[in-house]
Design goal:
The chain is mainly alpha-helical and 368 residues long. Helix content is 70%, strand content 0%. α1 runs parallel beside α12.
Length: 368
């Protein structure tokens, strides 16, 4: 009653053993593909982690640098500016990781929150009554009167260009892991599991436990079994090319590291611009939002403090170097994996599975 290992000679197999063999080949094939995938997946996961650590390190550095700008140059508003600064860098981090947000919305939300502080602490430091309604009016007015000049828009443009490639690379790496995981659990067809049993276990039914399949026979069976997986070849090559393109974009003229480290400078220029145009801004705000309560004697506008450029810190240099090294190593490795799905049958037929050093092997019907 054998269905797969039918043979003229006496056999030591039963139908139940054939069913066990089918379960065994399915399990072994999954394990074999997992073993092949392991190195590739390990490299991608490792680089996702390394990229994210480098991003976070750069973001922390840029955030600390921005916070210190307020503490040194704009002390009257430093405490209240801490939350908007934190939100800005959280939004940037989420954007890089693929969240449904935009750089423009993050930056403009930051400047919306910043304007009431600049207006009440630097331009008109005598304001005592900064009610919720008045604060909200200032936030909305910011969009119309553009107190920060071109600097807010410049910051959006620079960050959008440099963060886009980082976001795309982050999403592409996650997609790569998803593809690899899917191939590990691709179901074997009934015909495939029968062909694998015939190749690996039917010799056992004749007592030929040491005979292994012929190389050509193994390749034919594996290629048939993995036809759907090998169809990924062209797409995988395109995927590697896309990764290479994104990595080059990250390293191009609008470098992520440079853009992030320049955030504090853009914010400083924007605040200086608002202070220089303080009288005009006050006149416009008074018309739109009304006049808030003032302290007696009305304190003069806070003096403009020019900020000297902060020198590059060790942290930034290390994160910058780490990101560049990771990019190069990763792309070099991924280029070597271009033929991963094209050669999967050859690699599964490598090693102990087939007979290489002997002239005697199993061809599916007999020992040849």
């Amino acid at each position: 009653d054998l269905q797969i290992c039918q043979h003229r000679a006496p056999t030591c197999c039963t139908k139940k053993m054939e069913e066990s063999y089918q379960a065994a080949v399915r399990r072994e094939r999954t394990q074999s593909i997992q073993a092949l995938n392991f190195e590739l997946k390990y490299m991608i996961v490792g680089h996702i982690t390394a990229f994210q650590e480098a991003f976070e390190s750069l973001l922390r550095f840029a955030e600390n640098r921005t916070s210190s700008l307020f503490e040194t140059a704009y002390r009257p508003m430093a405490k209240e500016a801490a939350e908007p600064v934190k939100e800005l860098f959280t939004d940037i981090s989420l954007y890089i990781l693929g969240a449904e947000t935009t750089v423009e919305s993050a930056v403009l939300r930051f400047f919306d929150s910043l304007f009431p502080l600049v207006y009440s602490r630097l331009i008109n430091p005598g304001i005592t009554d900064l009610s919720e309604d008045y604060t909200e009016c200032l936030r909305l007015t910011r969009q119309d009167i553009n107190p920060f000049g071109r600097y807010s828009k410049n910051m959006v443009t620079e960050l959008s260009k440099s963060l886009w490639a980082s976001r795309m690379l982050s999403q592409a790496l996650s997609l790569g892991i998803e593809v690899i995981n899917t191939t590990e659990h691709a179901a074997l067809s009934k015909e495939c599991s029968r062909a694998l049993v015939k190749m690996q276990y039917c010799p056992h039914c004749q007592g030929l436990t040491l005979i292994r399949p012929c190389v050509g026979y193994c390749l034919n069976v594996m290629r048939g079994c993995l036809a759907s997986v090998s169809e990924l070849d062209a797409h995988w090559r395109d995927f590697i090319s896309t990764l290479e393109y994104l990595a080059n974009e990250m390293a191009a003229s609008h470098e992520l590291e440079v853009a992030l480290s320049g955030i504090w400078s853009s914010i400083n220029e924007a605040i200086l611009h608002a202070q220089l145009n303080g009288p005009q801004l006050s006149a416009t705000v008074d018309k739109v939002c009304g006049q808030p309560k003032q302290q007696e004697g009305n304190l003069s506008s806070a003096s403009i403090v020019p900020v000297k450029e902060v020198t590059e810190s060790q942290t930034f240099v290390m994160a910058h170097t780490s990101l560049n090294n990771n990019r190069r190593e990763f792309i070099s490795y991924m280029k070597r994996s271009r033929t991963f799905y094209a050669s999967i049958a050859e690699r599964l037929c490598d090693g102990d599975l087939v007979m290489r050093d002997s002239s005697t092997c199993w061809n599916g019907e007999d020992v040849v």
